[in-house]
Amino acid sequence: MPIFLNTAQPDFDQRFDDMLHMKREDAADVNDAVATIIADVRARGDAAVRDLTKRFDRLDLSGGLAFSADEIAAETAKVSAEDRAALAQAANRIRAYHARQMPEDMRWTDPEGATLGWRWTPVSAAGLYVPGGQASYPSSVLMNAIPARVAGVERLVICVPTPDGVVNPLVLLAAELAGVDEIYRIGGAQAIAAMAYGTGTIRPVDKITGPGNAYVAAAKRHVFGRVGIDMIAGPSEVLVIAQGVQNPEWLALDLLAQAEHDADAQSILISPDEALAKAVVAEVERLLPTLPRAAVAGASWRDYGTVIVTRDLDEAAALSDRIAPEHLELCVDDPDALAQKTRHAGAIFLGGWTPEAAGDYVSGPNHVLPTARSARFSSGLSVMDFLKRTTISKLSPQALAAIGPAAVRLAASEGLSAHGLSVSARLETLNGGAG
Amino acid sequence: MPIFLNTAQPDFDQRFDDMLHMKREDAADVNDAVATIIADVRARGDAAVRDLTKRFDRLDLSGGLAFSADEIAAETAKVSAEDRAALAQAANRIRAYHARQMPEDMRWTDPEGATLGWRWTPVSAAGLYVPGGQASYPSSVLMNAIPARVAGVERLVICVPTPDGVVNPLVLLAAELAGVDEIYRIGGAQAIAAMAYGTGTIRPVDKITGPGNAYVAAAKRHVFGRVGIDMIAGPSEVLVIAQGVQNPEWLALDLLAQAEHDADAQSILISPDEALAKAVVAEVERLLPTLPRAAVAGASWRDYGTVIVTRDLDEAAALSDRIAPEHLELCVDDPDALAQKTRHAGAIFLGGWTPEAAGDYVSGPNHVLPTARSARFSSGLSVMDFLKRTTISKLSPQALAAIGPAAVRLAASEGLSAHGLSVSARLETLNGGAG
């Protein structure tokens, strides 16, 4: 049974707080194992990667780590025309959305004569980790690789493990549609180490993104600093706020779509309408046993599913901000007005015709989003993750004359005399008319 | 003696690579100590913070953790009118620069009928760490606090240790000019823990920024995920590219300004003009002994100072990109043209009248910049660090009809049936004319 709360309960605050801080993930401590793997890859390069792949994936890579163009063509030829069309439509829509995110360079000259601004440049090389086996999602390839390509990354690398040699042709097709340059059939901490430090075959990259298991997450934390990484994703969640005339089956399916991801996923329903909330819960219970992934979805719903009845929508919006959900579905009469009352969410889906699942695949916005309340301070994946900003300044002699004395003064107050001298030496030349 | 390289040397590549990967920092492993402190603050709150402050800062905070308005007024009254004016000019210029960084919300409707976009919202509360003692820099207070205020952060907190009760009045004045709401006289890992988890007195924040020693850095890594953090700054560096008619004394002072920060700092000079390079080095050697911080600057210059003579400026630009310097000074005839040839730098200073020190204090751009080659993949502090982006989507029934089938297809290929059903249930209603 999910957790039922009502804001009218006298102990609601405590119960809500308990729900909010429920631990949904027991990350195994794999740091020592990961440190050993990374050290091995740094020391022995390709040989280490081959040995580890034989051990963990039961796969002999003595013929090479990379997929050849022929192998990719042979695999992607297996994809049906319908799947290919769906993937292409998704890729085009994701590309169009992310193209709008490209930020602009700026440059201006202020009244003192200082020309200031910034410019954006892409990272040179990015590596995308794609999990193997059941969680090998072609949609994630698009969501990670397309923003990198849009940002202008020159070299885009994928590592995807293929345990026992099993390949997902749709993953290779997604990589092709996204314009990936190199695909290596390696996984785990060894793949992260290879991308961060390089091997004989694999040149190092500057940024690594993409989801993975506990070993991959620990390896990403480990190499952070040597390369950039995206966020370390935790278990996923959806919050549906419902009110007015809504189809309970649709909302139940939205909650179940989250729950089927993972037993650690969380589905939350908030409504000022207790009857509607009960109708949605009844639909969840009816539909759950019919799902192929009933065991996973059932565990998530039983352990973390939460239903909260509120006095009104304002209260729902306030609770939503405390949850800071990864996905926020507003199935209410005026979703735009309610969206204005919330501040913290990874993605907002407005109205009953906008199921989260459409956004997971084809709407265009990224599905890599901040989990576990981190939407309070972070954003989903975007082209910005593959760009960096360089600030620019250019002072005219007049500008230095106008602002330099303050720098000299502040340098003195901080005890940094060479800082002050580097400005005052120039000012003296100016004042002396020499130079 | 600094490292002298010339790209004409037969073993230049190896020697450059050795320089690039020189280890400049031996971070002590303080993780266990920091974990203990954080656990103590989480368990005992204010009492733990008071005990730790008594132990580490020899300071009794039984009267309260925060500076009172009267204390702040009494301290800031000690600041001279000249220092106050310099700090105010810096604050105004930093505010004006960062105000231009505010990104815009976007929203559009595509031909399929999908309304898409994103919006930016500030984090609700940010905490700024300010080191105590010698490294208690008022300029850093401005550089961290002003972007947060410009972003619209509602609650802005500072923690600054005051060992033995010693306060830097300029730090308090900078906090006042930047509009900080609460100032606590605590430091170290206990301050980071207090801001991340909250105590009886200090409400938790969502994002923590600011520099600190090994304990502070380890504590920030520790609480990352619970709150957002800025980068973990490493030792600082400057790269000066020089050519044409330049004043060797000015460039020498720019190199020394970097070196005086820290014995781990690095100053690099690249020039195609060996005579100019030698003249700058001679000025460094002449000026070094005259500096109050000669010991620090001398150690940095001796251990990490590097001079590289190149065939031409193109070669200099290529080496600069491999270094990816935090600060890049282009003291050449056409600095704008040379800037166009580089891609990776935290900040670029164009021309001989733009000493880095002006940018450290008053030019306007932020002085918190990516160190240790991380400009390959990251940017300096900005208003973006205090904002997060929420993606928005709103599908019309027609839009769902146009893109929903692809989502259903991709969900099936990934084995996520509830995802597919949440879309197809809506499509059936549409096609059946019901709903």
Automatic annotation (TrEMBL), chains A, B:
Entry annotation: catalytic residues: E326, H327
Gene Ontology molecular function = histidinol dehydrogenase activity; NAD binding; zinc ion binding
Q: Which residues bind NAD(+)?
A: Y129, Q190, N213
What keywords appear on the UniProt entry? Amino-acid biosynthesis, Histidine biosynthesis, Metal-binding, NAD, Oxidoreductase, Zinc
The prosthetic group or cofactor this protein requires is: Zn(2+)
Q: Which family does it belong to?
A: Belongs to the histidinol dehydrogenase family.
**HAMAP family cross-referenced by the UniProt entry:** HisD (MF_01024)
Instruction: Report the protein name in the record.
Output: Histidinol dehydrogenase
Q: Name the species this protein comes from.
A: Paracoccus shanxieyensis
Q: What is the lineage of its organism?
A: Bacteria, Pseudomonadati, Pseudomonadota, Alphaproteobacteria, Rhodobacterales
